[in-house]
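Long-time lurker. I teach an intro course on protein structure, and each term I like to show students one example going from raw sequence to a predicted 3D structure in token notation. This year I'd like something fresh instead of my usual example. Would anyone be willing to generate the tokens for the chain below so I can use it in lecture? Attribution to the forum is fine with me.
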Amino acid sequence: MSALDTNRTMTHAGYTSLVSRFFTALATWNDARLTRNELAKLSDRELDDIGLTRGDIDQVAARF
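-- Reply from a regular --
Happy to contribute to a lecture. Here you go:
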């Protein structure tokens, strides 16, 4: 029979990684939010000039 250690402790590196991933996710979310807001400010004509429609805005912002 093998014994498994189920009491995992988070090391300092684990906390750093967790905090780093949190701030990376936060920055990614904010970039998408800013992109979505800026594209929403454009007129339909301006969106057409760059090859987008209003329906494309969320999809484009989700790539960030």
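Some talking points for your students: Residues 28 and 40 are 18 Å apart (CA to CA). Helices lie at 12-41, 44-49, 57-62.
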